[in-house]
Each structure stands twice: as structure tokens, then as C-alpha cells.
């Protein structure tokens, strides 16, 4: 669906004073390094010698300087003379019917490596000239006495192939050393000769009943000849990779083969013959190997009758002329017919011939140089979907006195794929083409999605809104004809030239067609927008005329128009407004835009010209006004009152494909202009009228604008959908703002956008081969769906979502409150039962909130019940089932209501709900409604086995009412409801009920059911026993007390160590003194075992009256003050020396032991931390295990959940490595956490473990200090031994406190970061550096502990008594 559009047309002429009028340009060479072109100009002097001038044209014909384009005049490089082709050569007296003299230069090539221009002449000379020399001279480095018929350099300039006048093939190097020299004519097939097995031969293949005899007869080589237009010269063409080349040459007649014929031979780059093409009658001299390598192109003449048989043409109708293709193995591979000949022309009276054919550098465009009696032309052909399209024609300018224009050479640029260079006798022409898609940009509801494809004089039209016709077919073919009678300027044209550009109107269904001469036709397409029968289009011409009425008409090329745009700013009184871009008639330095306003009557209301600031610009299709882009990317707008352009904005670079749209940015009410451009380098630019620009991507290959989205495809095979409003807002932000992630989807490899049809939510893509694919991207679909929802058109929105598999939740989610208000309208529009069921199912299974789902289902259900309960019974059932949570009972209750009045309807409804809900679940729900008839109905329609449910139902029927319901609820595991029914089944069921409560732990429900009965205390007792078994003794004691079970409550209090409550109940129950003492001893011992020494002493004193045991308990708890108070209170001084004094010394010894243990731990850990700090600072890579020889057997990257830094240089590598996956069970995770927290020596977790250990040590010392505070005053008051121990304990505490403070200060001092954190360049180094950065300093993880200062150092006299 792509077309070729002309972008640049430039020409350079050599001043007549510097060249001869009789001469002509004959050859072209390219300097890719300096972007220069070399052309050779030839003329014959009086001595029949040929004078050759070499001219250099810099900067590709033009050099753009700032705001103006300056034409660069060619400079003469050198001049030399050579002899004309020797008359002794057998090919010199050619019988060619060419209308022009053959060029003396066979080949001209600039060798980039040596900067030498090499010329090969027909006379046999090989000459070189150094182009970088100030005054270069021509040096003939070698000659071929027999002359040279053809020459061609390989693509890499390393090899040169020559065909000499005596029909020899010479292969030379770039230094002109001969590698191979062989005869050109060879009867061998070549190294790739096929092996005939019989079954693959043509004679054995199926050809139909008529063709079988011909296939078996074979080809008569005596009847194979060449075209009379053959110029008898050989041709050489290289494959694009330089591995092979092909030679086309005439085979001389022989007694057995009286006709001369063309033979194609394929050679390797070593000069070895590979294959010979199959004989083709009427094969001509043209030859070109497609650079991609799959096809070798030539031409073939056909004819019928004696004259054609005499010449040996191909069998076919007179006038048929084909471009034929060959494979490398010599076999034919398709063809297509040229379009130059009128029907019925006699053989030899064709009035034209094909001079040469060629390929663009990317193999996408084939040029056919046609030499006609009335003037030359070059046709540009492209292929899509196995069809060849004639896209453009280039006519040679006529000379003075209407002398037919002639081209002297046609060559494609070797790097710029769409640039072609043509030479005439007096000028060098450069034309650059680009790929373009002629598509309609009209907006809904009139968007037709029409696309126009140029194919010669035909325009193939397809409106993709109503039809999707694959190319090369089309919905309508618009064929142009010459006006009758033709004007004198048109008399020599056998057919209508190919249009140069096409434009669709953005407002009306109009099409404007432009020819290069300025001739314009405007058509009203009358496109049918909706699918249906009848023609898709009925075009009618509404206007025809010239862009420049003072210039020539169609066919005369004095003007150079290349683009037409139908403006969107036409007035209500006008029919259409056109803007036509062309080159100035005087060949100046500016382009001209002709503005034409046409009235409905067909008359021109306004015609004016606006001069552009420079050449080679492009009109931008705009929603308002006329916008032009310069070759540097600057954007101008045309004034509506004055004939001038004013600057508007600027692209970062020239964008051939550009669009102008009006966008309303997010949060703004007024629209603003936005320009979108696609550069030749694959960059997609967006700019606004303030000059802000952003580059969205650098790998785009096509784009369009539709449904307020910028849609573009990339070479990564994705299509992206960027909201225009977001882009407009993005341009207001700083350029460093990251681009958002727009919605995208995968597309087929190499896909390009053809057009978008917003009304159909469709995007049409074309694959590289040419076939089409229509997709419905989610953003386009959602745009239309949301618009339909906002407009209340729920049916259209629903059908769109259903067709394109969009979640139907969007109907609710887009505007929840509006949908709930419009539920009656929704049900009215979407009235089909199946559609409503689909909607409710989607909503119920969607991600909407549960309360919203229930509101939607209830709202739809109420509306359906109001309209027709019987019709929508299945939808009503669906609404019950899809609620959150599902109301199966309500659905079955509806069936019960309709069971008697509508039995057939209920039967269908039961089948439907069984389909909707699991049959077993539905059976249980019906059973839970205690309706056995409903249960049987569900079971029968669910096709359940009666042996499974009938015995159970019979058993239930035989039970009492409440016990029956109990059994049903118990079967359905509705335990609380079952207990309720069991409680109503009678007092005789109480024991069973209690067992049921205990089995299912329904204590709360049982307490509620029996609260006001005489069985309540029994339930409480059962509950208390359950709590006691769960070891919840405090709660069990409370329940037992409520139940009046005080003995059980006392046992529970004793287990809970609630000694106050225990002795309260013991006294209330008048427990005997002996039992009370027994309880006291038992409770006190339990309290002491739990280190509740104060409570134990209280029990000994209050309830056992045992002072000695009380003092012992207090001394064990280090409560010396309380112990001395109790001794004094009860007048037991003997206990002081017997219990308190030894106890104080034991406590002092314990503190000393704890201090020594803490001191040893502290010193070991501080020393280890010092070592770790030193190693981590001095050897960070070794510490973290980077490039360590000890770790070569440890694959730390196989498990992504374990960081590489889990190993250090101090870790021993295991012999085998676990290859476990990254998924870990909870058990293994806990095990890993224990490993990390264990602080195993040699791991990076060791430092954190040591810091936590020191923190715990500080807390332990704080507790020890508290014990010392309560002990030291008593030690100082007892005996001399006690005083001595007290003083030494003070010293020990002071010394350890000092040491501990210093250690904490040293450990928690952050070291200076002197480690070089630069990572290496390798992947492993970067990963390990990342892991090191990920490690947090353990000093930041573990807070620094505070060593508290306690006042235990008492300054007392060292003498005194106890």
C-alpha cells in the first residue's frame, strides 16, 4: 500500500562556454567519503578522437547554508583525449538501432581506498586520475588491443570484470593484475549443473492435456533468437555481496543455430563458471542483478507471425514486452509486462526499446530506462504481494525545437537507496524519492479509512471502513484517460503519465490527483461507509485544471510539481481548497506553493502563489491553514492575507512524514497545535508551537494519528499508543522528564501502519511481503467504548466489548454511579437474555468491589423482575448466583415460587442453574432449605445416582422435625445451626448436644442457647474443663467460679499461680489448717521455682507461718533488706548468721563469676571485631569473595535468593554445590534465618552477630549492677570478711564498667571509608559491586548500647558491726 513520492529534484548544468554543444554527459561516479559526484562529458573532435572532461559536483548537487540554498557550480577536474573505438573491432560497426551514439566510456568508478578515478574506454584503455591532486593528470595504466565491450567493478571495489572485443572474459584486481582470462562463449553449463533424475524434468511434470505434447517435444534452440532492439553489447552485473557476477552476451550464429541469441552466465568471484541460464526466446541486452541476490532481471520481446518466428521472439501476442527474472542457477523466476505498447503493433514497429534496467541499493525499486522515438523516460517499479506496481515516471526534457529529450545514463546512488541520478546531454539530474502512504485523515463519523495506491495510470482505492481488500486487488480502480482531443503537448504521449502525488480531503470525501506538470484532477469518491452490497465507491470528477494556467499542460515538464494537499480551512462557500508544492518556474532557489480555491460551480475563486523560504521543503497536512516544513526541519505557516510564510516551530531535523493536530492538554480547556514528525533515521519527534520538542523513540518505522492517540510501530515489532493530550502536557515539562510507559502490543515482524479507522476501532498493518492484517488495538476500542458509555449507548458499547474481548466490567467501572442510575436504560438496550447473562457473569467474576457487584446484580434483577419475570428467569437466577457472596437460596426460592404455575419454565431454569453452579453445591443448598421436593428436582436434573441420595433422604424423612433438621445441618457442616436445632429437639437430647458441643467446640453458641435454662451451669462446667485442658487456667478458674465449682476453681487458680485468689477461695470454703498449710507449701515452692521469691516469702509468712523458709526465699531472691526486716520483726536473730551471712557471700561469688564470664566474652569478641574491621578495610574484595581462588567450586549465582556475599575468603568451599531453585519452603527459610543469626565464623553475618552479642552483654551487666546495688550495702555492714568482699566487688565492677565503656566506644566508632569503590568493566565485577553496595554496615543495623551508671560505689567506714 506504499507509494513513491518525489522529495527532491535538483539539476546541474555545465555552462555552455565550458563544454561543446555536440558532446554529452556519459558516465557518473560517486565519492561517498566527500559526498561528491563525478560526471564525464564526451565529444568527438575533428580527428575523430574523443575528448573527455571530468567534472566534480560537490555536496550531492547542493549545499544547504543556514536560511538559503546555494547551488554549487560544477568544477572541471581534468580533460584528456582518447582514440575512438577501432574500426577493426568486429563489434565497432554495430547494427544497433539505438537513437543515440554509444558512450566511449564503458565504466567510471572512484576507488575509495586509493582515491583514484578509474575510467575504462571502448578503445581498450584503462586510465586513472588522482582526484585529490590539485591538477590531476590522467594516466593510462593498461590497454586491451581488441577493445573493451563491457566492464564492471565489484561492490567492494576489489575486482574488475572486462569483456573484450574478441569475446574474452578478464578478471582483474584493483591493482589491475589479471586473475582469470577465459573465452566468453562456452558450451559448458557450469559447476552447478543439475543432476537429471527424470522425475524432476519438465517432460514428466503435469502441464495439462494441451501442454503435455509441447513439454515432451522440448524447446527448439534453432527458433530461439534475440530482439531486434538488442544493441549487441554484453552486460555485466554483480550480486550485492560481491560473491557472484553474471554476464549477458550474444552467442554468434552457427550452421545448427542460425539465429543469434542472448545467453546469461553466472560466475563466481574467482571467475569460475557456475551456471548458464535456460534459453529464452527474444531475450534482450538489459541485465541487472538485484542487490539482495535473489533475482537477475532482464527483458524479453514477444510476437506472433512469420516475422516474429524469423527473429526468434518469444511466443505471444504482438507488442508484449516483459521484464523477466532468473535465479542464480539459471532458471526462470517470474516476470511482469511493461505498459508501453498499443495493441496490434507490428513486429519491429514498437517505437521504443528498453535501454537499461537497474535496482536501488535496498533492492526495493527497479528502474526501467525506456528509449522512445518521441523522447526517453525512466519508469520506477516496486513489488508488493507478488505484484509489480508502476509508481513513478521520469521524462527527459525536450530540447530546442521540440527535439526529443534523451537520457545518456541512469544510475542509482550506492548508499541513498531512493536517490537516482540521470544525465542528459547538458545536465545532471538528481531525484530523491521517499515511501509514502496516501490515506484519508477524515475524522469520525465520516472516516472512511480510504487508501490510494498508484499503479501506472490507475489508482487503486480501498475504503477500509467497509472493506478490507488485500493488494494487489482493490475496492475500486480509478483509471485516468487523456483528454479528447489531446493538446499538441500531449500528442506524443501514448498513455496517461503516472501521477506524482495524491491527497485526500480531511473534511469531505474528495480526492485530488497531481501530475508533475501541474495538471490536477479532483474527484468526489462517494464512498459507502457501511458494509453491504453494491459498489464501495462511485467516483465522479468535480474539477480538472492546472496549478499554473500560464504553463504547459499534461505531458510537458517545464514545471516540477511534486505535492498536493487538500486544505482543511476551506470556507463554506468553496468546494475545495488546494495547496500545490512545486519548484519555481525560473529554476530559482525557492519553492512555490500554489493555492487554489474552487467553488461548487467548478470555477476558481482564488489563485495565488506563496514563495517558500528555501528549496526541498514539504507541505504538512494540517487541520487548519497551510503549513510548510523546510529541509532543515523549520515549520512555517502561510499568511491568509499576504503571500509569505512566517516561522511557527521547528523539528530537530527534517521529517518527511509529518502531521499537524490540535490537542487539548491534560488539565487545559483550550486546544493547542502539535506537530508530529518521522525522520529518515527512524526518530519520532513531537513539537508544539512554542518550540518545545521531544524525541519519543529512535526506531520507528511508521506512525499515524487517530482517536486522539499517536500510534506508531517500531523495528522492535511493537505498536505503541501515546495519548495526544499526554504528549502535549509532556512538552510543558523539562526535557529530562522520563517518558511514561504507554500501552503497546506485539505486531508481526516488519509491520508498518497503512491507516487507522477510528469508527471501526481498526488499525491496518502491512507486512514486508505486502499482505495486510487488521487489528483492533485496545486503546482504540476503549476510546470508542468510553465515548459510547458516556453517551448512554450501552448496546453499542456492549457489542464492541463482546466482539473485541474487552472485560464487560468497563461498562460499570467507567462511571459507576451513572451506570447504577441507567440500569433501566441498559436493560432496555441490551434486552437479549444471553447478553444479560453474559454481562452478569462477567461482572460477578470480575475485579469490582464486592458491594458494587451486589448492587449491580440487585439493580439488574429488580429491573428484570419488573419487566418480565418469566422471560428473564435465567438472568434473575444469574444475578442471584453472581452476587458476592452468592445467594443460592434466593435463586432456588424463585424456582419454588414458579414450580406450580410454570413447570416447564422451572425445568429449563433448573437445568440452567445447574449449568451455572456446581450440582453438588446446589444439591446441598436445596437440602439446607429442608424442602425434599426441591432436593429431588435438583438431583434428578443433575443426573445424580439415586443410590447416592435416596437412602439418605429416606432416613431423614423418618426423623423428628428438629432432629431431622439437625441431621441435615450437621451433614452440611452448618454446626451452629445444627446445635440450635438439636437444642430444640428436646431435653432428652441434652447429653448428645453436650457431646456435639465438645466435638465441634461450640461453647459460645451453647452458652447463648442454654443461658436462661437450668442447664446453663452444666454448659459452663463443660466450657471450663475445655479451657483447663487448653492450659488457660486463669480463664478456666473464672468459668468454674461462675458455674459454682469452687474446688475446680481452686485447682485452676493453683495452676495459674494466682495465690491471692486461691487462698481467698480456701478461706471461703473453710479449708482445714492442715490442708491450708499443705496448699501454702505447695504454692510457695511453685512461686520460688518461677523466681517469684517475694510472693513465696509472703505465702510462707501469712499461711504457713514458717519464718525460716520465708527468709531463705528472700535471700535466694537477693532481697537482703526484706530478709533482715522479717528477722527483726519475728525476733529470730539466729537466722541472720545462719542464712543471711552465707547467702550474701554466695551472691557475691555469683556476681564475681558472672563478671569474669562477661569479661572473657567481651575481650574475645572485641578482638574478633578488630580483625574483621581491619580485613574489611584492607581487603574488601577478598572479604566479600570477589575473584577468590577458594570459591571456584562455589556457584553462588545458581540460587538468586542467596547473595554472592554470603561467602567470604574465610569460607571453605564444599566439594559439591546444591542446584536448588530459588523457591524455598517456610521451613528452609527459618533454617536459613537461624544460620544467618548464628554468627558462624567466616561469614559476613558474623560482625552483626558479634555486635548484637555485645549489646546483650551490656544489658546483662546492667542487671548485674542492680544485683550489686542491693548486695554491697549489706556486705559492708556484716563481718570483716563481708566488708572485704564488698570492697573488692566494688573494684571489680568499676574495672569492668570502664573496660566495657571503652569497648563500646571503640566498636561503635564508624571507620573512614577509604575503600576504592570503582567496579571493573566486566559483568561479574558489576554484579559483585552491586552486591557490596547492597550490604548495609552492621553498625547501622545494630544500635549502640548505653552503659548505665548506677550508684553502687558506697563510701562507708570499713569498721563496724552487723
Short description, anyone?
With 1362 residues, this protein is of the alpha+beta class. 31% of the residues lie in helices and 26% in strands. Residues 1-415 form the ELP1 first N-terminal beta-propeller domain.
Report on the structure:
This protein is 31% helix and 26% strand. The protein is built from 35 helices and 58 strands. The longest helix is centred in the C-terminal third of the chain and has 45 residues, at 1134-1178. It has 1362 residues and is α+β, with helices and mostly antiparallel strands.
Structural class: alpha+beta
Tell me the strand percentage band.
25-35%
Q: Over all CA atoms, what is the radius of gyration?
A: 51 Å
Major beta sheet summary: 5 strands, mixed
Total of DSSP H or I helical runs spanning 4+ residues: 35
**Count of individual beta strands:** 58
Mean pLDDT: 83
First-residue to last-residue Cα separation: 115 Å
Low-confidence stretches: 60-71, 87-99, 484-493, 552-557, 1187-1224, 1312-1320, 1358-1362
- Helix fraction, binned, reads 25-40%
Give the overall silhouette: elongated
